[in-house]
Design brief:
heterodimer; A: alpha+beta; Creatine Amidinohydrolase, Chain A, domain 1; Creatine Amidinohydrolase; 2 domains; 6-stranded mixed β-sheet; 5-stranded antiparallel β-sheet; 14 strands; globular; B: alpha+beta; 5-stranded mixed β-sheet
Chain lengths: ~350, ~375
């Protein structure tokens, strides 16, 4: 559940920016012959609705209804008492109470589109059955079609506002990692320091995975309870700031860090900056690594999830990022060095062909 | 997994196997994500924080887990060595294929809140409601190991509220209060907490995630705080005042405190969820506050607790679910008060044969935080 700062600064994300995003989607909807489009949101899948309206649910569910020419309407399964709060943190035409979200959506679509219409649903396959059932019933008057591609076609590149939010998220993450006590002996000390720093810095959410003893196992884990830290450990910190997510991975050593870590960090920065729109699908192959490259992934946001794998050592992308795209990406690498594994990762903005990417951390 | 988590998983799996046998289910396919991870936690012992996940549970066989996030798959392989974990970038399609490969076995899908459209539109869609109800029944009454986890969560909620009281100081932004509480919970090995709050006066009509608003003298500061231990959530609701409470705030407190006491007194095996809600609402009606127990001003008078922060049953007057021993609840007459604004007050309890055990230890009082 989200419990960090959720607020909307009109300076950081002007209403006009959100309206432009919606207008781009509406253009594509018209091209696709859609009478309306539905975009589902919960705190597990908040990113598409947040990108269009700046609304992030702290719990519960909602459906954003977008018509080809009007301001989006939010059908919210929240208590009516929080509608004022919803309006204060987002840019919406109308907020409607919808305790039974699916039934409310079916009724609303019937009211607004009395003639049978093609209704595009972003990520239709994944729509929860509790929401979809009422709309999927025969005679509901709507033909549901998958519109994942329609949304994805306008989602990237990132605009200036989104890059600024991602940069702020990266700064929050960097300061949180700097706040980890050098003397930490338990996972709980690290987790507590990260949460305190990031949330006091305005993070909307903080997710942390730890490899508590790098010499024994480099798997990044979520800790319930606590465990002792090895002399070397790794931290993957994911931070959201106003719905912009970044993922940063850093290794820690209680004693002097091995020299190979410095080489690895330098290689990481150099390799990441060389990823451009053409090479990003193939990953970090431009420069020989200072050890064995065990695994890598590049993540981006094209739908409802904050970060999804775009490419990796075990995944070839089905489509490219758009030409000339600026995208906020996260990249994780695992290097096996002579003196043990090293984990690294950080957000970057992918440059156009032949131009360097911009590391945000 | 630690020892207590192992014990919990074993207990749950044994109860699940009996239920599946009784319902004639050979394979139970359970969907989940970060929003609805409770059912997955119950059947497979995992809490997903990113992406979708599906558990395929066959009686007497190791569970299989299909995971969308590569990072989540990697950690589950280490954290749950008894599970067969596979990373699938298209997990719905992979689960559909896995179901098809099961052939003629009797398969059920659950829960309706997480089963995706594509799987529900297939031949198994008609059985979702029944399988969900089966799991819901299993999750209502808690086993001894589950009660132990719930107790620890309730104790942690008390400690968390003490941290919140320390954090609530004039001039601090709301989000700083939550930061302090979260840092405390992480320091105690607690990975998850649900928390909302409100601060101000009569203009405050509910709670929400923290904003940038800074606390001012005289603010009524509400919070509901819900830490998680071994997957189980317990909750506390309390209200404090920055400075000395006004006479109106003191009067309001007596109403909410009486409602909480009456609600708790109504909790017993054989009572309904509606009885507990009615007992609380009658207090408000008697004080001329009948309007404020309607959906215009409040949501529920409490709810179930367990692997989900807002579980069954909802404590509402029209809910006729009969309480049984070892159900776990929060009783909270939280609502708007026309003289002072939104006010919260609630304790976590365990239903017993002749009443209930109150697990919240924080005193039931309107706390006053001195202004420096």
């Amino acid at each position: 559940m989200r419990r960090g700062l959720i607020s909307w600064s009109r300076e950081e994300v002007p209403a006009l920016v959100l309206e432009r995003r919606v207008a781009r989607l509406q253009n594509r909807m018209r091209d696709a012959g859609l009478g309306a489009m539905l975009v589902y949101t919960s705190f597990a899948r908040p990113s598409a609705v947040a990108w269009l309206t700046h609304f992030v649910p702290y719990w519960n569910e909602a459906l954003l209804v977008i018509f080809p020419t009007e301001t989006p309407v939010l059908l919210a399964a929240f208590s009516k008492r929080v509608h004022d709060w919803i309006r204060s943190v987002s840019h919406l035409g109308e907020v409607r109470s919808a305790p039974d979200l699916g039934r409310a959506a079916a009724a609303f679509l019937k009211e607004r589109s009395p003639e049978p219409a093609r209704i595009g649903v972003m990520e239709l396959d994944a729509l929860p059955w509790s929401v979809a059932e009422a709309m999927a019933k025969p005679g509901s008057g709507a033909e549901l079609v998958d519109a994942t591609g329609v949304f994805a076609s306008v989602r990237q590149p990132a605009d200036e506002s989104e890059v600024l939010l991602a940069r702020r998220a990266a700064e929050i993450a960097a300061r949180a990692l700097d706040a980890v006590p050098a003397t930490a002996r338990r996972t709980s000390e690290v987790l507590s320091a990260l949460d305190a720093s990031a949330r006091l810095d305005g993070a909307e959410e903080v997710l942390t995975r730890l490899a508590s003893d790098l010499r024994a196992d480099s798997t990044l884990r979520r800790f319930e309870g606590e465990a002792p830290l090895g002399e070397r450990y790794g931290v993957e910190l994911s931070v959201a700031y106003k719905a912009a997510w970044v993922r940063v991975t850093r290794c820690f050593s209680r004693n002097a860090a091995p020299r190979s870590w410095e080489l690895a960090a330098r290689w990481f920065a150099e390799t990441a900056s060389r990823l451009d729109e053409k090479s990003v699908s193939a990953g970090p192959g431009a420069l020989p690594p200072p050890g064995k490259l065990a695994s890598w992934i590049v993540e981006t946001c094209t739908g409802s999830q904050p970060l999804s794998i775009f490419a990796g050592d075990r995944l070839t992308p089905r489509q490219a990022l758009p030409a000339g795209a600026l995208a906020s990406l996260s990249l994780s690498l695992q290097l096996s060095l002579d003196d043990g594994p090293w984990l690294g990762g950080g957000p970057l903005v992918i440059g156009a062909s032949g131009r360097p990417s911009l590391l945000l951390i | 997994m630690n020892g207590s988590t192992d014990a919990l998983a074993g207990e749950r799996r044994a109860r699940l196997a009996v239920a599946m046998s009784g319902e004639g289910i050979d394979v139970l396919v359970v969907a989940g994500n970060a929003w609805r991870s409770d059912y997955l936690r119950f059947v497979a012992g995992v809490t997903v924080v990113e992406g979708q996940a599906f558990a395929l549970i066959e009686r007497e066989k190791p569970a299989r887990l299909i995971i969308e996030s590569a990072a989540e798959a990697a950690r589950f392989r280490v954290e749950q060595p008894g599970l067969a974990v596979s990373w699938e970038p298209s997990p719905i399609e992979a689960t559909e294929n896995a179901i098809r490969a099961l052939g003629a076995k009797r398969i059920a899908l659950a829960p309706s809140a997480a089963v995706p459209y594509r799987l529900a539109m297939g031949p198994l869609g008609s059985g979702i409601a029944r399988a969900t109800a089966t799991l819901d029944r299993l999750m209502l009454r808690k086993s001894p190991a589950e009660i132990r986890a719930f107790r620890r969560a309730a104790a942690l909620a008390d400690e968390g509220y003490a941290v919140f009281r320390e954090a609530a100081r004039v001039g601090r932004p709301e989000y700083a209060l939550v930061a302090d509480v979260e840092a405390f919970f992480r320091s105690r090995g607690c990975p998850e907490n649900f928390q909302i709050l409100g601060a101000g006066g009569k203009e405050v009509r509910g709670m929400h995630p923290p904003t940038e608003r800074r606390l001012t003298p005289g603010d009524l500061v509400t919070t509901e705080l819900t830490p998680c231990v071994d997957g189980y959530y317990a909750q506390i609701c309390r209200t404090l005042v920055l400075g000395q409470p006004s006479e109106a705030q003191k009067r309001a407190f007596t109403v909410y405190n009486e409602a909480l006491e009456r609600g708790i007194a109504a909790v017993r095996t054989g009572a309904t969820a509606g009885d507990v809600a009615r007992a609380q609402n009658e207090v408000f009606r008697r004080h001329g506050l009948a309007d404020y127990v309607t959906s215009e001003y409040t949501r529920v008078r409490g709810h179930g607790l367990g692997l989900y922060v807002d579980g069954r049953p909802a404590l509402l007057e029209d809910v006729d679910l009969v309480l049984e021993s070892d159900m776990t609840l929060i009783v909270h007459p939280n609502t708007y008060h026309p003289e002072v604004g939104y006010f919260v007050h609630g304790d976590s309890v365990r239903v017993t044969s002749d009443g209930c055990e109150v697990l919240t230890r924080t005193p039931r009082e309107l706390f006053s935080v001195p202004i420096a």
